[in-house]
Amino acid sequence: MNSQNRIWVTVITGFLGSGKTTLLNNLLKHPEMSQAAVIVNEFGEIGLDYDLVERSDENVVQLANGCLCCSVKGDLIDTFRDLHIQRNAKTIPYFDRVIIETTGIADPGPVLQIIFTNPMVMNHYALDGVVTTVDAINGIDSLSNFPECAKQVAIADRLIITKTDMTQLDNNVDQTKKLSEGLKDLNPAAPIIIRTLGEFDPEDLFGTGMFDTTSKKIDFEAWIDPSKYSEDSLGSPFEPNDNIKQNRDAYYLEKGHTPEEHPNHNHDTSINTFCIIKKEAMSINMLRMFLEGLTNEAGPNLLRVKGIVAIEEHP
Q1: Domain residue limits at 57
Q2: Using one digit for the tens of pLDDT, what is the confidence trace for 254-286?
Q3: Would you say residue 289 lies in a domain?
């Protein structure tokens, strides 16, 4: 099944308190989003974000306790399958798009791995893009001290700086500028959008064809453009805050996670890029085996793989 016949999936991620749910609520108020299925995932006994999403309960799926980077990976696959079956059986309203809102401390990598490597998901769904929200007030501290936040930025196709109205009230516009420069260092290829949350249109973030192989060549070049990345590692552009570092494990414990569940909290957040060139076409099975092998070998250290591949079955 080609991408035109599959259902587009958009992942909205961002650190705790960065405005993901507010953004989602504003987007869902637009008429063109009336046929979107929403998957909301957050840990904790009470799914607060689920309650905040202003959407029909029939088309909102809340996953079980635990964030996507931890225990609910299988549940996400089941959710994709159930949505597809119920959509075809017409037991739920028709939807033409899936939006996944991750929890604030989730690494979105496992979500993308499911979309790219699970045969059932690949057959019925296709990734449209990753949207990451960054808080203009706390974004610099979050990027400096929490590797998850840096990963969320590095993996994004669109970066949204939120709460800029608050920096203007504090006469701290320079903070937004500094944050923007740091985001460009971490992810040079992702456009940065700075607007108040109420000004967003779905076309700003969805249906961009970022992963559509029928897009114009210029869109491909903008998406994959290796010239935007230097050969040097892309490290965090901000200095860590010692006070936050000292309290980081306590912070995760407060949010329901133990340090053992997130062993990479103290790791260097530097990010490296590499390029693989293969002149010959490959089969779909070979590509699938390569991606599975790469993800199994690199594990959580692999943030993202993107490229243009010639497939033997689709010359």
Answers
A1: 3-231
A2: 445 544 444 443 334 455 666 777 888 999 899
A3: no
